[in-house]
Amino acid sequence: MKTLRAALRGFWAWYERHYKLNITIAAVLFGLQLVHLVWLTGQPLADRILGDPLFEVDGPLRWLIILVDYTEIPALLSVSLVYVHELRGGISWKPVLYLAFLNSQWLHIFWITDEFVVASGNERTALPAWLAYVALLIDYLELPVIWDTVRRVARSFRTRGLEPSAREEVT
User: Fold this and answer.
1) Which residues lie closer than 8 Å to 2 by C-beta, 6 or more apart?
2) How far apart are CA 153 and CA 167, in angstroms?
3) Helix-, strand-, coil-residue percentages of the chain, each rounded to 5
4) Measured between alpha carbons, how far is 157 from 22 in angstroms, rounded to an integer?
């Protein structure tokens, strides 16, 4: 147990020393999810609501969407660390809420897939169609967290010193 505690202390010390790098990587990875959200809004959701998609993504662009989708898991892990790190300094509603928003994405990733969202607009599926809207709403919970993460990066670069601590940045 002592070695686990020592390893965690060492990890958080490293995280703190390299906070700017860690938060920047998290923001870039999570910012990529905007590409995915634009696709969800413009193709399957618009098709479902309006009867026609705003645009069709095929060929190499479709592969880009798939590639961006694969960055979601490292994005969720890296951004979750941002809020877990903040909670180490004390419990606050905002990081708890954002962790809930972030971790609801696991439900979306492993239960309600994008294929289901698309299929629910084109054909019958084993799951009820209203779950496609739940999946989309879960995806949109990323937006306030993406905004907050990008804001944190901007703040960390405005502060003095090479590597400010996250606790200094949050205030």
Assistant:
1) none
2) 13
3) 80, 0, 20
4) 12
